Amino acid sequence: MIANSYPQLDWLAPQGCRLRKTAPTTIAMATPSPDRQELRVMSFDLAALRQRVDEIAAGQDRIARDITTKLQAAEQDILDKISVPPPQTGRYSGPQNPRRHRCRLTPSR
After folding, report:
1. How far is residue 69's CA from residue 6's CA, in Å, rounded to a whole number?
2. What is the Cα–Cα distance from 100 to 16, expressed in whole angstroms?
3. Which domain holds residue 48?
């Protein structure tokens, strides 16, 4: 049935059910070919489209570089924060100038 409706699909039918072709089937295009002016307009439109696509691609490249730069800076910032020990707050670390704070111990009696 498909082969009868669409002769170009005859090769899909089983061997015994194939149609016999007497002449090759051709499909004619019903649309006329465009004239020179239409081709020129299409050519300019395609050139403008290509230019716009190139601009978009350049913008995407710029955005990718910006994101990469920001990610690298954020990574370095995190690494800097991790590698620096936290400040010692509330803990006694001894006298700031050991010569100035000498204690004299006297033996107890």
Report:
1. 59
2. 114
3. 37-82
Tens digit of each residue's pLDDT (9 = 90 or more) over 33-87 = 889 999 999 999 999 999 999 999 999 999 999 999 999 999 999 999 888 676 6
Q: Give the DSSP letter string of the chain.
A: -HHHH-GGGGGGS-GGGPPPPSS-------SPPP-HHHHHHHHHHHHHHHHHHHHHHHHHHHHHHHHHHHHHHHHHHHHHHHHSPPP--S-----SSTTTS--------
Task: For residues 35 and 39, give the distance between their C-alpha atoms in angstroms, rounded to a whole number.
Answer: 6
Is residue 59 included in any domain, yes or no? yes
The overall pTM is greater than 0.85: no
What's the structural domain count of the chain?
1
Residue 106 belongs to a domain: no
pLDDT digits (tens, 9 = 90+) for 59-74: 999 999 999 999 999 9
Q: Is residue 69 part of a domain?
A: yes
Q: Provide the token pair at 1.
A: 């049935």
Whether 88 maps to a domain, the answer reads no
